[in-house]
Amino acid sequence: MRNKIGIFDSGIGGLTTLEEIRKLLPNESYIYYADSKHNPYGEKSDEELYKIVKDIVNKLLEKKVKIIVIACNTATTRCIEKLRNDYPKILFVGTEPAIKVACDNGYNNTIVMATPGTIASERIHDLISKNQRENQNIYLLPCEGLANAIETNDLKRVSKLLHEYLDGYKEKSVDSVVLGCTHYPHIKKKILNILPNVKLIDGNIGVANRVKYLLEKNKLINKSKKTGTLEIINSNNE
Asked: Could you tell me which residues are beta bridge partners of residue 7?
């Protein structure tokens, strides 16, 4: 019987997604797969990345998961449609930059921080074309190396990169920053130190709501009142 929620990311970033889902669904059991071995995903070719992601999906399916959350913007934008075609009976929930949220809430000057792979994806440009309001400025900011610096806890490099990427926006009346990588919520305070007046927007709450909706719709919700279990696997230790 498939009774667990599987979540994976290219390392620790997706733990922020896991946290939001567990808040909403504390009685579910979880398997979190941190693929630190292959971090960063954004530097992989489409073929290489899909091979890595498919291997993780197969491992999670062996663990009897009932739904798989791709807690990575890069893997979502580049792999989720192919996964849905290859595994038509499996429920997948992806993660994507919360551009729609920024647009719907009336922000005028929004930075979208993400990996170069996510910024270059068609999905980003689709989200902008569908949601951008007239006179709204959206700045796409590819943050090469930032996710890896967070993954390795290289705080000096994190600070250096943030100043390189954000200092030029201090005079642009930026009012919001979309955190387009699940690693970035780990450094919210550092971002606010540079741009103290912005609203930080991430998509993790939306992902959690989507997981709950799909489980309820497919009658897969765990009705137990006991707190579920959590298993964490890191590819570096396999």
From this structure: 32, 69
